Amino acid sequence: LMVETNSIRVLESLANASATISQSEVLQMTLAQDISTNQEKYLQVVRGKTAALFSAACEVGGIISDAKSSQIKSLTEYGDALGISFQIMDDYLDYCQSNENLGKNSGDDFRERKITLPVLLSLSKKNQEDNSFWKRTIAKGNQRDSDFISAQKILREDNSLEETKEKAVAWSEIARTKLKLLPKGKINNFLNELTKFMTSRIT
User: Fold this and answer.
1) How many CB atoms lie within 10 A of CB 134?
2) C-alpha dihedral (123, 159, 103, 188), degrees to nearest 10
3) Fewest C-beta in 10 Å: which of 57, 115, 136, 174?
4) Contact, 49 vs 152, CB < 8 A?
5) Count of alpha carbons within 13 Å of 2, Cβ hemisphere only?
6) What is the mean pLDDT of each run of 10 residues along the chain (203 residues)?
């Protein structure tokens, strides 16, 4: 599919994205179950994996349509912000009660001991009892049947879930601002609606 475009620029964009994703996969593996991970490292992984795909897809659309370099840049930045919003939203949904909008079971991230944004936000509050819980369940992997319910309770009560939702919305708004630099019309409207769809899943 990449070759069928007959565009070296498209090949370059997608090849770079593939390399970035591979590097970020390695980074994510090194940070696995490490509760000392900070939000900067988390964002680096998200930007290098999920957002890299979104960003490259949007960039390629601009390249194929012979858009101006400034417009291609806006599309790339739109995809980056949208991808970050999407991943943060996914992190949020994993700790919600309902599986309705998930392509997986809620609690999968917790059971797989992934360091996601809700957990990082909770850890940053430095509540000794809560942090001991995260150390036992995420860092050490000592999980009991009732622990996911306890995790949800902690994240609701310390406001980490709400803060995660707010960050997802904020990134979707950043994505929307990038569309202001692009031509008005059907595609622009569609991309605007896409940002609304992202946040509608968490409101």
Assistant:
1) 20
2) -110
3) 136
4) no
5) 13
6) 77 84 82 88 91 93 90 95 94 78 75 94 95 96 94 96 95 94 91 87 56
